[in-house]
Design a protein that fits this description.
Layout (H helix, E strand, L loop, with lengths): L7 H23 L33 E4 L7 E2 L5 E3 L2 E3 L5 E7 L2 E8 L14 E5 L3 E5 L34 E8 L2 E2 L5 E3 L2 E6 L2 E8 L19 E5 L7 E9 L8 H10 L1
Antiparallel strand pairs: 1-15, 2-5, 3-4, 4-15, 5-14, 6-9, 6-15, 7-8, 7-14, 9-12, 10-11, 12-13
Length: 269
């Protein structure tokens, strides 16, 4: 006798039942039940401080404004640079902040000369030196070949940028840098290398890179023990690079409550 196949309606019912079971499992997994409770870390974090972010591009309320288009009074040597149309133009040597900084968030806007002169390292060259010794390279790298760990956005002679996002000569560009200073012990030995994250024109070009030491032109990178805070330096390399809207935020490392503090917090609940 020929075996009859499962009626179509029953096949549909079986499929619907399986679907319902799957959906039910998903629903149960994503919805708290009477037997379950929300997981919490129990860490008694301090409430994050509320900061006015300011207009797009800053400066935010907690920033230290280093140049607002009016003067370079925050810098040593600032009197030798030209202030014109709200911009500071490189000339007569580099400038160094009067205030020292360690861990920080830095915003710098700059533009290479509109008139293209020179090539390679001789075209729109400048630099931002965190702590006066860890350089993010400024260079007109728009259709301007040079060695990769010396092009715009490189951590000089240590790390090429992930991508080249240089605008055309004369156009304004932005660097946003998150810098964590190196740590040294009482004997001057390195305990934690410096790290740097850089966004160029809003794109990530250095991703929490661990520096190998200072970024010298004439020698391999190496660390020399130094204070936890040092001034910021803007380089004059002989090219009339322009700067505007420079601000910096000092950063503090988050302190996680100790284990015993967490336990005490739980006992009080």
């Amino acid at each position: 006798m020929k075996q009859l196949s499962t009626p179509p309606r029953r096949r549909h019912l079986r499929g619907w039942t399986a679907t319902a079971i799957v959906l039910g499992v998903i629903s149960m997994a994503g919805t708290p039940t009477a037997e379950s409770a929300e997981w919490k870390s129990g860490i008694p974090w301090q409430e994050p401080k509320t900061i006015d972010p300011g207009p797009p591009g800053g400066p935010p309320a907690d920033a230290i404004v280093l140049f607002d288009g009016k003067d370079l009074s925050q810098f040593e040597g600032g009197q030798q640079w030209l202030i014109r149309d709200g911009c500071a133009v490189c000339q007569g040597g580099g400038i160094t902040t009067k205030q020292a900084f360690g861990d920080c968030q830095l915003h710098v806007e700059w533009a290479s000369p509109s008139e293209v002169k020179g090539s390679g390292q001789g075209r729109g060259n400048s630099g931002v030196y965190l702590m006066g010794r860890y350089e993010v390279q400024i260079l007109d790298s728009y259709d301007n070949p040079t060695y990769f760990d010396g092009q715009c956005g490189s951590i000089y002679k240590q790390s090429p940028p992930l991508v080249n996002v240089c605008r055309k000569p004369g156009e304004w560009q932005t660097f946003d840098v998150i810098f964590e200073a190196p740590r040294f012990d009482d004997q001057g030995q390195l305990t934690q290398p410096a790290t740097m994250t850089v966004l160029h024109n809003g794109l990530l070009i250095q991703n929490h890179f661990e520096l190998l030491g200072s970024t010298a032109w004439h020698e391999p990178p190496k660390y020399h023990a130094h204070p936890p805070k040092l001034p910021l330096h803007l380089q004059n390399h002989g090219n009339p690079v322009r700067f505007r809207n420079i601000w910096i935020r000092e950063l503090k490392q988050r302190v996680t409550p100790k284990t015993e503090e967490i336990a005490e917090e739980g006992e009080d609940e």
